Amino acid sequence: MTDLVAAAHGTADPRGIRAVHSLVRIIARLRPEVPVSLGFVDVDTPALPSLMTRVVADSNRAVVVPLLLSSGYHVAVDVLGEATRRPDQVAAAEALGPDPVLAEILADRLAASLRPDGDVRGVDRVVLAAAGSSDRRALLDCSAVAASLAALVNRPVEVGYVSGAGERLGAVLERTPGRVAVATYLLAPGFFADRIATVAARAGATASAPLGPDPRLATLALRRFDEAVARRWAADPSEPACACPGTRRARELARSKIVGGH
């Protein structure tokens, strides 16, 4: 059996913590035969390195699935670093984005924010609001999702950021003419989501809710898991079974903590 280790960014905001745990519980329910655990690359605990030490001590192999919307530092350094340190046991999956599924969820969140009728026809342009990154790969990933969203809603979509490199959200909104809506390209509530909502309100625009613990996100994470397993172990699909009762019990306890967590 291959473990799935979900790697999230982490947040001090309880709303964000609850959203991430809810998403991981959906992942676990969709694939009940796979041991699932959750670690963080920043802010929150358990930290990914310490979690991986425990997982590989109790498992034959594992895939780290970044619950991150774009490639960038945390994927290249934190997630790939775990696979590099333990190449025989650990593989790294790709980031969730870019993917058409993310644009679909964004379109749904955008429609929900356009009360009372949720009709995007009342909007001239959309601005995709992202946290931002200093890594060019992450910016390119956001642009790809913006293009997918534009095709879905049949409206021009630009990207604005609230940190890192790239043009700031406020500046993008200031130069964007017509009736504008803001699509929040974040996984969960927290500091950046609040910042996006504030900047959008100042510009007279409405910001959609973050993606949240959507079953489509969980399915996408499992697809990334399956892709990583196929890439890393397709030539050697077998894995030795562990008959140790203590080990099985430890895995059951770890799994119950995730499924019944926050």
TrEMBL record:
CDD domains: CbiX_SirB_N. Pfam families: CbiX. Keywords: Lyase, Metal-binding. GO terms for molecular function: lyase activity; metal ion binding. This is Cobalamin (Vitamin B12) biosynthesis CbiX protein. It comes from Kribbella flavida (strain DSM 17836 / JCM 10339 / NBRC 14399). The lineage of its organism: Bacteria, Bacillati, Actinomycetota, Actinomycetes, Propionibacteriales.
